[in-house]
Every structure is written in C-alpha cells, then in structure tokens.
Specification:
The complex is a heterodimer of chains A (336) and B (369).
Chain A lengths: L1 H8 L2 H4 L4 H10 L4 H8 L2 H27 L15 E4 L4 E4 L4 H8 L1 H34 L2 H12 L6 H12 L4 H9 L12 H24 L5 H8 L4 H12 L1 H16 L3 H6 L7 H11 L3 H34 L1
Antiparallel strand pairs in A: 1-2
Helix pairs in contact in A: 1-3, 5-17, 6-17, 7-11, 7-14, 11-14, 12-13, 14-17, 16-17
Chain B lengths: L10 E12 L2 E12 L3 E5 L6 H9 L6 E6 L2 E2 L10 E4 L11 H11 L4 H14 L15 H13 L5 E5 L7 H18 L2 E6 L2 H7 L2 E6 L2 E6 L1 H6 L4 H6 L4 E10 L4 E4 L7 E3 L10 E6 L4 E4 L9 E11 L3 E8 L4 E7 L13 E6 L5 E3 L2
Parallel strand pairs in B: 3-8, 3-9, 6-7, 7-8
Antiparallel strand pairs in B: 1-2, 1-4, 4-5, 9-10, 11-12, 11-14, 12-13, 14-20, 15-19, 16-17, 16-19, 17-18
Classes of the chains: A mainly alpha (336), B alpha+beta (369).
C-alpha cells in the first residue's frame, strides 16, 4: 500500500529504467539516514573492538589469504616468481583457475620437510619444558616477594628487551664458543682440561631459545600466581597438608591457566624460530623456520615456501585453539 | 545460652602472657586466658583490637612474640599449623575453588591417610549434618553464601577437631540467615561436643552464641564473663559502652557506705542512690551507667526524691518490638530510653511531651575506670 502511494507521487520517468526499483525505495523511505544508523549501531564498545579487528584483518587475514593463494601456484622463473592462479582466457570471457596441489605433495615426498617439522617440534617442546621448569619457581618467588622487590624483579625480567634480540643471541656465541667465556672459566678453574663443544649443538639452541623466551613464560605465570588467595594455603595447612602437599593440590592446579598460557607463548614462536638455530645450532639439522626462509630467499620458490607456512600454521592452530579454550575458562572463573 | 554451665576443671586452651608485636605495633598485649572443654568462647572487640591475631596464633599462622599457648596441656610453640589438633573456619571461608564441595570436605581426611571408603563415609555423614548432601558435586562458586558457610564448617568439622576456631563465622550472611545459622551452630556444637572459639565484632552474635565472652580492646582482654555478666556488670566504661547502649553520667561520690552509695551528677538534679556498696576512694570521680531499658518514663511525677529526672521528648524511633526515645533533660543532657511496645493502642508519649524518668536503685552501675 505504501508503495502504491509512493508510486503515485513519483514521476514515472524515474521508476522506469535500471535504477527504477532503487528510486522507488528512495521515495518510499526517504534518503538513507546515516546519522541515525551510526547512532544506533556504533556503540563505543563496537568502535573499540573494530580497531584490533581491522588490524588483524589487514595484517593477518589479508597476508594469510595471499600466502594461501600462493601455495597453490606453480613456481616460475619470472617476476613475480610464480604462475598466476587465475587467468582470463578468450579475451576476458572465461576465467580459468589453475590449482596446483603439487607444492603440498612435494612437502610429503621430500623427507627434509617432515624431518625438520618433527625436529622443530621436538626442540620447541623441550625448550618449553625447560622454560617452565626454570620459569615457574622464578614467577612463584616474584609473586610472593614484597612489593618493592617484586617491581625490581619484574624490571629485571623485562630489561633484556631493551637490547636487540639479535645482539643477545650473538652474545651467546661469545659465551659458548670453544675459546669463549664459559670454556675459559672452566679451564682456568681446572674443572675441565679440554674445551667443551658447546656452540653449534642442540644444547646451544635450547640455551638460546630458553633464554630468549623465558620472560614469555614468567610473565603470564606471575600474573596468575600473584592473584592467588593465600588464605587457601592457610586453609590447606589447617586441614593437615604439609607445604608441598598444599602446593601440589592447591597452588599448582589453580595456576594451570598461567602454565598453559606461558607454554603456548614459548612453544608457538619456538617452533618457527630460525634466528637462534641458524646462529647457534647444528649445520646438519635445520629447523622449519630456516627451511621456510631458505625457500623464500635462497631458492625463490615462493609457492613451496607458502605451502610450508600454511602447514606450519595449521599445525600450530591446534595449540592456539587450546590456549583460547583455557583463556575462556580462566575468564569465566574470574567473573564469578 | 548464657546460663550454660562451664566445667571449670577441664581447661583445654591456656594462653599465658601472650604478646604479639608487628614492628612497633602491639597487636596482642600480654593476654592470659583459659578456655574450657565444650564451651563457646567469643572474642569480642572492634576492628584492630587484636582478636583475629590471637585466633591466628591459636591456629599457628602467627607465633607469639612472647608468652606461651598450650592446647590440651601441650606447648604449641614448635607445632606447625598442619600438626595442631585445631581446625579453623575462615572469615572468607577459603574454599578451594577448583574442587567440588565433596572434595573440599574430603581434603582434610585425605591428609590423614584414611582409606577411600572411610573418607567417603565421613564426608557423606558430615554433608548430611550440614544439609548439603545434594550439593556434593557442585563447585563453591555455584553455591549461595549460606551454603558456602556450611561447606566451610563441614570441612573444618569433618576432621573431628577438639577445638574449632571461627573467624567472624556469620559475617558474610544476611540478617535472617544469620539468626538461623546461629542456632544451627549452637546445636552442632552441642551435638559434637567441640570447643568453639569465635572471633566477632558483632555483640549480638557474641551474646547469642557464647557461653563466655572475652571483650578485647587495644590488644588486651578487658573483661571475661558470661553474656549476663558482661551486659549487667561491665567492669569499665569501655565495656559498658561497647556492649549495647548506655547512658553514662559523670559524677562524684557523695556518700559511701558499705550498704549503699549516693552520687551527685552535674547532669542530674536529683542524686543517684545505689542500693549496694562499691569499692572506690571517697570523693572519687566515677561514672554512673544506666541501660536505656532500665529507665521508666511516665507523664506523672514518680514518688521519692532520688533516681529521677525531668525532660522533654526530642526524638522517637519506632522499632516494632520497642521504641527508642531521646529525652533532653533540663540540664541539656540527652538520655536514651527504650520502652517495649506491649500494647498496640496505648496512649503513647509523643514529641515535645514533658516526661519524668526514674529507675530502680539496683539498676545503675558505678564505674571508676
């Protein structure tokens, strides 16, 4: 009915033609009221959420899609070094997509990839475990110390970030090499009579990763442990639990969200790490991050490098999802 | 509860000259106290009076700077909390948030190394006593405040302690639930024969729960006695003022005989006559304390020339069961009087009415400190 009334007032010339339906809507409801739309839908909360949302869209989702598309292309000696995925044939009348799964198949045929994947996961897992074993007592001590000491300790944990990451890894070369600081001290003390081979070993990689990522283990653990209600430990003692039992049955389970957060924050970047293993690690055993960068820069095989990146991402997605589940649980627990 | 007899021969806790300092601050100052088997002893005082510190020393979370604590004849100096024959119910309840009600209650028994069957049996029994059987599998955050309080109680009592320490046990409950829980607590205590030491700042709570009350002020115990003793015979201005409300008149001893005393108060025209002797120096400055419910208020002048005053009603607060009147004496002094509302339609005294106040010679308490 409303439409017919609007039609009556509308010049017939406008309703004919391709924009006719749009024009009749315009006449029926008036011009679009942007200000009202904005007022009703753009709450402050939405705007605040929109900022990180756009950030992730621009710098994570879009690059991911580009890499995803690249992984299905064919390598070419050209500029850019890959075949286009979509092609217009017959003067733009037919669009042809050439999906090449060969890059993924290639990852399976060459044992180098499976080997480096597994090695990377092993290195990351061991480093994470070591970081947890070292980081937990440190986080616990900081959380239980007095307010002045606590701020000092937190400063000391964060202080290394003020120096370049690369410089700090290079410093470890100076410490670990055959005529380096550690060997010289041990030799002069007479603990050893021949220098130890420390550099370019798995050990050096663990040292480097644990050292570099330890703050990422300590900080989430600290922020969890610091919130604990200490009367729970008093209650446990009152009920007959010795301090170790009280720790195992009260503090440890309550700190699990912090443990999980810390472990993921160390494990995920450690899997893809390539600076530390290439500076400190063995030359005969690559990590997947190194393979990835070599494919991109040395081989200029962007499609295979993209396929490596996609597989790595999918393998890491699982721990990220687990992390999010734990985080949600912690949030739910904090809200009660 | 007040009349409950205490067997003085069975001392269970003995606190000997205990002092606790935190830096320059003396939280507990030379306290000596005996607590007997099967009683409910309330430590009553305002915040910061040291009552909680004293309780925490009994539990073993603090140690005395000097003095001794004996529980069942054993010096507790070197006994850590997890070895004391004592359990505590925390003010915040301190329930383990990651454990179900059942697991919370079982925790203490697990530490004793009992068999699984025995633990399950005792936990079930205890949950039935506190009427939480159907909530066994819930987590603490799924319970109401009153239910959490009962879990905390069950968790402490399932260990069958001889002494239970309760820190503001009813503090977090609303008024109705509080009253109900008070009587539940007393029933439980009688049923299980446990000695309770309760810390509270709420005098009403102390009055209903306790067989004896220890009033604390600035780290010291100022008076120990049954609720009746504490209310009717306070030994100091602090106690008289802290417990209930009181009208306090400064005065001077005019006549001091073994059988009676007469006191002149500047705020009262007529002298105060008290029908029992007191121990104070002649001409000493004393305070006369009269409870508001012990004053009668009439329109007609009462007989006699003593224990009376005249004034004007300035405020009336109707409380349902009784009414509180604030009367301004001709000296300008305000006096508080409470009158029970016995009848529904009596001719109540109204604002600005002239009234006569009087009291029995046995009612006032003379306080010299």
């Amino acid at each position: 009915m409303a439409a017919s009334r609007a039609d009556a007032r509308m010049p017939a010339a406008l309703t004919s033609g391709r924009l006719g339906p749009l024009m009749s809507l315009f006449y029926q409801y008036g011009p679009p009221r942007w200000s009202r739309y904005v007022r009703e839908n753009w709450s402050g909360q939405r705007v605040v959420i929109a900022v990180p949302f756009l950030w992730l869209l621009l710098f994570f989702v879009v690059p991911f899609l580009i890499v995803f598309k690249l992984s299905f292309s064919e390598v070419r000696v050209a500029m850019p070094p890959y075949a286009p995925l979509f092609e217009w044939l017959e003067e733009g009348r037919r669009l042809v997509a050439t999906l090449d799964l060969g890059n993924y198949a290639y990852l399976l045929t060459d044992s180098l990839y499976a080997n480096t994947f597994l090695y990377s996961i092993k290195v990351a897992a061991i480093s994470t475990l070591l970081a947890l074993l070292i980081g937990y007592p440190m986080a616990y001590a900081i959380a239980r110390s007095g307010p002045t000491a606590r701020n000092l300790f937190l400063m000391l944990i964060i202080l290394p970030f003020w120096t370049s990451f690369l410089l700090r890894v290079y410093a470890w070369i100076g410490l670990l090499k055959t005529d380096g600081v550690i060997n010289s001290v041990l030799l002069s003390m007479g603990v050893i009579d021949r220098p130890l081979t420390l550099l370019y070993t798995d050990f050096a990689v663990y040292v480097g990763i644990v050292y570099s990522y330890l703050p990422f283990m300590i900080l989430p653990l600290y922020s969890n442990l610091e919130k604990h209600d200490l009367t729970l430990l008093e209650a446990a003692a009152d009920l007959g639990a010795r301090p170790i039992r009280a720790f195992l049955s009260v503090t440890l389970p309550l700190s699990m969200p912090g443990v999980v957060a810390g472990c993921l924050l160390v494990f995920i970047p450690a899997v893809g790490e390539f600076v530390i293993p290439s500076l400190l690690g063995r030359s005969d055993q690559l990590m997947i991050g190194k393979v990835l960068s070599d494919e991109f820069f040395a081989n200029r095989d962007w499609p295979v490098a993209s396929a490596v990146a996609i597989v790595l991402l999918l393998l890491l997605l699982l721990p990220i999802l687990l992390f999010q589940r734990y985080q949600n649980q912690e949030l739910a627990a904090a809200r009660r | 509860m007040a009349e409950k007899s205490v067997d003085r021969s069975s001392e269970y806790v003995r606190i000997e000259g205990v002092t606790r300092r935190f830096g320059d601050f003396v939280a507990v100052d030379n306290v000596s106290l005996s607590i007997y088997k099967g009683e409910i002893f309330c430590l009553l005082g305002g915040s910061g009076c040291g009552k909680t510190t004293l309780l925490r020393m009994l539990a073993g979370f603090e140690s005395p700077t000097s003095g001794r604590i004996l529980i069942d004849g054993q010096d507790m100096a070197d006994t850590p909390p997890y070895e004391r024959p004592v359990n505590m119910m925390f003010q915040s309840y301190a329930l383990f948030p990651h454990m179900s009600v059942e697991r919370n209650v079982a925790f203490g028994l697990e530490q004793e190394g009992l068999s699984k069957g025995e633990i399950a049996r005792r936990v079930g029994e205890m949950l039935d006593i506190v009427k939480l059987g159907e909530f066994a599998r819930r987590k603490p955050h799924q319970l109401s405040g009153g239910q959490r309080q009962r879990v905390a109680l069950a968790r402490a009592l399932v260990k069958r302690p001889k002494l239970l320490l309760l820190d503001e046990p009813l503090g977090a409950l609303d008024r109705k639930l509080r009253e109900h829980t008070q009587f539940e607590l007393i029933n439980l205590q009688e049923q299980l024969g446990v000695t309770f030491i309760v810390v509270t700042h709420d005098q009403e709570e102390a009055m209903t729960l306790a067989s004896r009350i220890g009033v604390m002020n600035k780290g010291q115990i100022v008076q120990v006695g049954t609720p009746v003793d504490i209310y009717e015979f306070p030994n100091s201005r602090f106690v008289a003022d802290f417990i209930g409300s009181v009208n306090m008149f400064e005065g001077q001893l005019a006549e001091d005989e073994p059988g009676y005393v007469r006191i002149r108060c500047p705020d009262l025209e007529a002298p105060v006559f008290i029908s029992h002797g007191i121990s104070a120096a002649p001409d000493a400055r004393v305070s006369v304390a009269i409870r508001p419910e012990k004053i009668s208020m009439t329109r007609e002048s009462p007989a006699g020339t003593e224990n009376r005053a005249v004034g004007t009603v300035k405020e009336i607060a109707y409380m349902g069961d009784m009414s509180v009147y604030l009367v301004r004496l001709d000296s300008g002094r305000m006096v508080r009087v409470t009158i029970p509302n016995v009848e529904r339609h009596d001719e109540r005294i109204v604002w600005e009415e002239r009234v006569h106040l009087s009291w029995d010679p046995s009612s006032p308490v003379v306080l010299s400190q």
